[in-house]
Design a protein that fits this description.
The protein is 14% helix and 42% strand. By secondary structure, the protein is mainly beta. A hairpin with a 2-residue loop joins strand 14 (194-202) and strand 15. Residues 249-265 have low confidence and may be disordered.
Length: 265
């Protein structure tokens, strides 16, 4: 591992600990292109007793979600009991996504994914990016005008391998008149991934904030920020939005999580 300052290391550890099992790599099947990352997101509807009523989605960039047939790569930590197959093929893939107008983001209800696991005799053991850590308008405004250290949790497509290993890509985001952007290029396969910052709270304290979703781009990838994503999700028609479900406190997983990262430049 490269040596990073304590703040960077603490932020990376917080990402891995809280959402390390939230991401899924996928690509267009049979053609080995449109490599991207999707992630699980819980939109909070209300709090009831000790549980929360949420709408659960997969979230990714809109462009790679237009593939008609796609293949997810599954990690052992995401399924219980562990599946023998490491791939999940989805036909009519493009039809399962709802594209959020003007944001470049697509969302899919996870109801079908849970139903698939039940039919096959297993269940998902994912983490989720929760509503509580996603960026508000105030968080976005707080970025200021200078570059801010940022961390993308995605699945890199390395030449000569199909492993799609998960990586925390270390870089910077900048906010300007056109919105928020990732400064520089991203490794292939990381479009659609969540982007995080560690927002300082004074002293040695900080809060983990998911700023948004990395979108396709050239030298600077746009980021669709979660304040706008949240507004768009709440405007979805009832027949399009994910069905509400009540969740309790998830028991901790006994599986150790890998802690590693790569720099984007």
């Amino acid at each position: 591992m490269p040596d990073l300052p304590n703040f960077h290391s603490a932020t990376i550890n917080a990402i891995v600990d809280h959402v390390g099992r939230a991401t899924l790599p996928f690509h267009r099947a049979h053609q080995d292109d449109r490599h991207a990352t999707a992630f699980w997101f819980n939109e909070l509807v209300e709090t009831v007793g000790d549980g929360e009523v949420v709408r659960q989605y997969l979230v990714t960039a809109g462009e790679p979600a237009r593939a008609e047939i796609a293949e997810f790569t599954l990690r052992a930590a995401l399924c219980s009991p562990q599946m023998s197959a490491q791939k999940l093929m989805m036909v009519d893939f493009a039809e399962g996504w709802t594209h959020l107008d003007g944001l470049g983001v697509a969302v899919m209800s996870t109801v079908g994914l849970h139903a698939h696991g039940e039919r096959k005799g297993w269940s998902w053991t994912t983490d989720e990016v929760t509503d509580g850590i996603t960026a508000t308008e105030e968080d976005v405004d707080g970025l200021g005008e200078g570059p801010v250290a940022a961390y993308l949790l995605g699945h890199v497509t390395d030449e000569g391998t199909t492993d799609r290993e998960q990586a925390v890509v270390v870089g910077e985001v900048v906010r300007d008149g056109s919105g928020v952007r990732w400064a520089g290029k991203l490794p292939q396969g990381c479009v659609g991934a969540p982007v995080f910052i560690g927002a300082g709270l004074g002293g040695q304290s900080f809060k983990l904030v998911c700023i948004g979703v990395a979108l396709p781009g050239g030298d600077h990838h746009p980021i669709a920020t979660f304040d706008r994503i949240r507004t768009a999700l709440r405007a979805l028609a009832p027949d399009v939005a994910a069905a509400p479900q009540t969740i309790g406190q998830k028991p901790p997983s006994g599986a150790p999580k890998r802690r590693w990262w790569r720099r984007s430049r």
